[in-house]
Structures are given as C-alpha cells and as structure tokens.
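User: NADPH-dependent 7-cyano-7-deazaguanine reductase, Hyphomonas jannaschiana VP2:
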Amino acid sequence: MSDNPIYQNLGQLGQQTAQPQSPEEAELERVPNPHAGTLYLTRFVAPEFTSICPVTGQPDFAHLVIDYAPGEWLVESKSLKLYLTSFRNHGAFHEDCTVSIGKRIFDFTEAKWLRISGYWYPRGGIPIDVFWQSGEVPAGLYVPETGVASYRGRG
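Assistant: Predicted structure for NADPH-dependent 7-cyano-7-deazaguanine reductase:
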C-alpha cells in the first residue's frame, strides 16, 4: 500500500478482502481525481455480471457498461468489482439491478455525468436491456458507443 496519506483511508485496495454477501453490505471507496478540472470519460465493463431472479431464484447474466465523467472523485476499481460481484446472491429484477448500480455510483462519486447500459442475456426467450443516465451528456464530453451489439447470441 502506498505511503501517500490520500490512500490511507482505503480499506480494500492492497488488502485481502472478504466478498460482500449483498449490495447493501458492499462498501464502495473513492479516491481524489488528479484531473478533477478536466472533462473526460471513464468506462468500466463487466461482461460477466450475475444476479438472481427474485421470483424463480434462477441466475441472470448481463454485460454491463458503466460510463462516467468524474468530478472531484474516482470510484476505486477493487471496491467497484466487489460491489458488482455482491449481486451474485442478490434477488432483483434487471431494471432494479441496473438502475440502482448506476445511481449508487453516481451519487457516491458525485460524478458530473453517468450512464449505465445493462445488456441482459435472455431468459424465457427475451433479452431485457436496461439503460439509465444521470442527465444530458455534458457539452464537449466524448462518449463512444458501448460496443455491445443488439442481441443475436451476443457473441
């Protein structure tokens, strides 16, 4: 772990960390953005996101793309990975998982803008894709396409 005092409050990075059992238990962490005055986009892709159907208990799978324009804070990536994997035993519909992830990251990081795209693999023959963004794209922000094709076997 770095001796830099900025990183001393991080409890997960560089440490052996137990997997949170639920999204509520998962702790997101943030670090100062060294380019806080610059408008830019950061993308996280989770192509193997899993959760549980709250009705049937069957697993659901999604390809998540999270784009955000950071403000003063960056989400620390290990804490984000642990947060996302905490959904593995969490029962919620696709819409709830996708939107709650986007809102939590947006609020926690105090981002300038965030978009989450949830491309859910079909169950019962219907893929359900869920999209949420915090508002209009800031003027001048480069936001590339997600790179995920409409469902045709997704691969």
